[in-house]
Amino acid sequence: MVRVGVRWVSVGCSGFETGVAWPILMPTKVIVVGGGLAGLVCARKMMDAGLDVMVLEGQTRPGGRIHTLRAFFADHMYCEAGAMGFLDIHTNVKELVSQLGLQANEFKSESSPTVFYLRGRRLLELPGKPAHDFAGLTDEERQLGVDGIYGKYVATPSKQLGDPLAPNWSPAPFQELDNILASDFLLKNGASPAAIQLLGCGLCGLYGDGVDSFSALMLLLGAALLQNAKSDFEIVNGNDNLPRVLAQTLGSSINYGAEVTSIEQNNYGVTVTYSRLAATRSIQADYAVCAMPFPRLMLINFSPSLPALIEEMIQNVGNTSVTRVFQQAQSRFWAKGPNASESIELAKNHALVLSAYNGPGTRGILEAYLAGQAARYADVLPETARLGEMLDFVRTTFPDADSECEGGQTWSWDKDVWAKGAYAFFRPGQFTKYWTSLTAPAGKIHFCGDQTSLWVGWMEGAVLSGNRAAQEVLDAAAKPGAAQASPVIPR
Question: 386-418 burial, b if ≥16 CB within 10 A, otherwise e?
Fold first, then answer.
């Protein structure tokens, strides 16, 4: 007989009935590798179920790619170098925020239009209005405008996928969509090259190196997931409060500065080896959960090797390059005057410029969100040059930017040694090939992280995957005959 979290055994001895279950207080031991949101959620769920959990995090802070920058700005302003927020349809994040007693604010969208700066020209895009000024569009596309173009070529075709969040949904029937590039799919379905360039702005162009790099299935899957979203939210006083408060609930179970270097497993459990400062330690447990991005998993020595398809997936799935450039400004000049705009989008370099701080005060922070080649180009520049390049771009729409901007800070996820990139993207053929491997355990080693969910790049994906991996371990520990590892003792 087994009860999840605590080992039970059947005993037969004098004075006791054979087969009666008596508890031996030896809780199942689990090592969670990585203290990002997925790892923290996974650890908490297992601890709540009575398991003995230890989290090993290489950094000296929790949160992973949820990272709020605070120290570089005046007037108590802050901005998000990582996860920007969550949507009203992200029920798991909303529930977690409520459970932890945190507050979230809805982003208040201005009535100003979006400005597209393409081919050296400024195009003002009013929601629901025709895109008359953009050369190369068909007559129908001009009348549709940017929102209508997205609806015709992306949102409407995405309906063929059904509900990706439904139980037992599988990408297998959509192999043909997965085998072609998103840009080829758009062209095949009647989009003009100019319309594809417009669609390359914003979210459609912020994965990989844009629509010429990821599969059509990934494009349509993103649209299908987002179709019912109406509003988005951010945690009050910074999104890093979510992992910070969650980590506090785990207490001393988190070990910071612990860089895992190897994981060995046998029929009885796992041995996780990590380094901290000049010391190397090993810990034995029943199970391990790897809650790390694929580029970091490449650096761990697994013995025996992971199954071939999982190893191939970790090595081959791409990670999007993202660099974010933040300019502090004396006022939020982009939201006033004749050139007022919510955002500026540049399709050629997959850049999105938007307000990065929505709190009180008169000052503001303007952000350039660079993805793909634009991010890698910025990464080779000194920080002052990155800020200067952003200012040059902003000046194309707001001539008074020079007098308003005061300096700022940049963040590169490629250069972050604990992430080595921002979020995953799937090249043609990869999603259907690796679908089952994304969530498959390797013996006593389980995996989580937003890249193992449909919500790639979202906090919702991290939470869902953390809960899923925790439940896998709980189910495995509840099976009769589940092995018990030696006590968790560093050596």
Answer: bbebbbebbeebbeebeebbeebbbbbbbebeb
Q: Are 96 and 325 in contact (CB under 8 A)?
A: no
The HSE-up count of residue 179 (CA atoms within 13 Å, CB side) is 5
Helix H or strand E encompassing 26: strand 20-27
Judge contact between 30 and 488, C-beta under 8 A.
no
Query: pLDDT, tens digit, for every residue of 193-211?
Result: 989 988 887 778 889 999 9
Q: DSSP letter at 23?
A: E
Please give the structure tokens belonging to residue 146.
């940017």
In a 3-state reduction of DSSP, which class is residue 482? coil
pLDDT tens, position by position, 83-125: 999 999 999 999 999 999 999 998 865 555 666 666 666 665 6
Please answer whether residues 428 and 215 qualify as being in contact, where contact means their C-beta atoms are separated by less than 8 angstroms. Answer: yes
Tokens (6 digits) for 270: 């796992």
Which of 91-108 are b and which e, b meaning 16 or more Cβ less than 10 Å from the residue's Cβ? ebbbebbeebebebeeee
Q: Quick: pLDDT tens for 249-264.
A: 999 999 999 999 999 9
CA–centroid distance for 51 within its chain? 27
80 sits in which H/E element: strand 79-80
pLDDT at 146: 83
> For residue 369, how many C-alpha atoms fall within 13 Å in the half-sphere facing its CB?
23
Cα dihedral across residues 287, 306, 450, 156: positive or negative: negative
pTM: 0.90
Q: What distance in Å separates the CA atoms of residue 327 and residue 363, rounded to the nearest whole number?
A: 11
Q: Which of 275, 334, 330, 329 is nearest to 301 (CA)?
A: 275
**In whole angstroms, what is the distance from residue 40 CA to residue 441 CA?**
18
- E strands within 244-358? 254-256, 259-266, 269-276, 279-285, 287-290, 301-303, 318-319, 322-329, 343-346, 351-355
**Alpha-carbon distance 382 to 395, whole Å?**
20
**Span 294-308, pLDDT tens digits:** 999 999 999 999 999
End-to-end CA distance of the chain: 32
The DSSP bridge partners found for residue 242 are: none
Q: Is 285 exposed, middle or buried (0-12, 13-18, 19+ CB in 10 A)?
A: buried
223 and 24 Cβ atoms separated by less than 8 Å: no
Is the C-alpha dihedral spanning 420, 422, 428, 429 positive or negative?
positive
